[in-house]
Design brief:
This protein is an alpha+beta fold and about 375 residues long. The chain folds into 2 domains: about 20-150, no CATH class; about 165-375, no CATH class. It has 10 helices and 19 strands. The strands form 3 sheets. It has a 10-stranded antiparallel beta sheet. A 7-stranded mixed beta sheet has the order 1-2-4-6-7-8-9. It has a two-stranded parallel ribbon with strand order 3-5. Strand 7 (about 110-115) and strand 8 form a beta hairpin. Helix 5 runs antiparallel to helix 7. The longest helix has 14 residues, at about 275-285. The chain is globular and about 70 Å long. It starts with a helix and ends in a 5-residue tail after the last helix.
């Protein structure tokens, strides 16, 4: 649509139009269809499929609307891109949801999952699914064979410039208060692990508005009792780029505020994990902390995701606030397989379980054992 508009301007006033060369092969009819939603190429009863042929795919307003519209109808969401495309952190995180998938069209015409590399094939009802024929031939364990293009990225793609990412998932529970202002813990979190507060925010990418807690709170109030989800970014050109989402929902106990943050560190720089411990202590002192999970992984310096291996997400630690400790039971929480650090009053503490430095894959099993211990049976 934008291209047609630009062409009409050139036809009327002169000039020229430039656009990137297309990368996606359009010989598959599924790549050229259309539906009632302008961002969705085809839809079944169970899934909506969008096709994006662009160097970097953002969480655009149309894409956000497509996800919401088809999500309300109970459909999953799948995004098809060429192998040369990258996703912003927000889109990549969205497509790691069990109801979503990133489908990459390889130069050989095949399709594979952009996050894990498994070949996928089309199913008329549920969209792209794992290709059962993609298991390693002659393998008794039927281990899946990853697509060759996933395993061998182009060196010019920047895959060799991987840096450390710190990932933080923070959940807060505020008592109902008409004077509540959102975003204080978001600023505390970003300053602690990225060295700067957010500077931009919005509901889609690119985020257009200057960060302002009053504005964030006002929009969440206008949308209540419906949930709100906002995106925020750090200063452009910062040494530690940050990308995050802030989700707000009304619950029986008050207002739930959740922050998912990713921070990229400069090449050769390591995350300050001692600062994370201090952060958890400060969050606990604020009284609204419900839980916080900290992980580490390798990734691109600009926080975008290319359809190639990035290494596993490895846990650093897990924290629970006072109310969560009371729900679990203090004695039970203290008897966890990982010794906790206590913050706050002796009888009503918050607990921080440090699992490691985020480099040992074995810590993933320790994290599973810890969470299995902390969760009440059946929750």
């Amino acid at each position: 649509m934008v291209r047609r508009f630009a062409d009409s301007l050139v036809s009327e006033f002169g000039g020229c139009v430039w656009a990137p060369e297309p990368e996606l092969q359009r010989d598959d009819p599924r790549m050229v269809g259309s539906t009632e939603h302008p961002a969705v190429t085809l839809a079944t009863d169970h899934v909506a499929v969008a096709v994006q042929d662009r160097p970097v795919v953002p969480f655009s307003p149309w894409l956000a609307d497509a996800v919401a519209t088809h999500g309300r109808a109970g459909r999953g969401f799948q995004l098809v891109t060429p192998a040369a495309s990258r996703l912003t952190h927000e889109v990549s995180a969205l497509l790691e949801n069990p109801m979503a998938r990133w489908v990459v069209r390889a130069p050989d015409g095949g399709y594979y999952d952009g996050h894990v590399g498994l070949p996928v094939t089309w199913h008329e009802q549920v969209g792209f699914v794992r290709d059962a024929a993609g298991s390693a031939p002659g393998s008794e364990s039927a281990e899946p064979a990853l697509h060759p293009h996933f395993l061998h990225p182009d060196p010019q793609d920047g895959a060799d410039a991987m840096v450390d990412h710190l990932l933080v998932d923070l959940h807060l529970l505020h008592a109902p208060d008409e004077h509540l202002r959102l975003g204080a813990e978001t600023e505390l979190l970003t300053r602690a692990v990225a060295g700067a507060a957010p500077v931009l925010w919005g509901t889609a990418e690119p985020v257009p508005m200057l960060w302002n807690r009053d504005d964030v709170t006002a929009l969440a109030r206008r949308r209540a009792p419906n949930n709100s989800r906002f995106l925020f970014r750090g200063p452009p050109g910062a040494a530690r780029p940050l990308s995050g989402t802030l989700s707000v929902s009304r619950v029986e106990e008050g207002v739930k505020e959740s922050v998912a943050l990713a921070v990229a560190h400069p090449p050769g720089a390591l995350p300050d994990l001692d600062a994370v411990t201090g952060l958890v202590e400060e969050l606990a002192a604020g009284g609204a902390l419900h839980s916080v999970e900290v992980n580490r992984r390798r990734g691109r310096a600009d926080l975008t995701r290319a359809p190639h291996p990035t290494g596993p997400v490895i846990p650093v630690g897990f924290g629970v606030g006072t109310d969560a400790v009371q729900t679990i039971g203090l004695q039970h929480a203290r008897s966890a397989p990982v010794e906790p650090v206590r913050f706050g009053p002796r009888l009503t503490p918050s607990l921080w379980y440090r699992l490691g430095d985020g480099t040992d894959p074995e810590d993933r099993q320790r994290a599973r054992d810890l969470l299995s211990h902390l969760r009440p049976e059946g929750s």
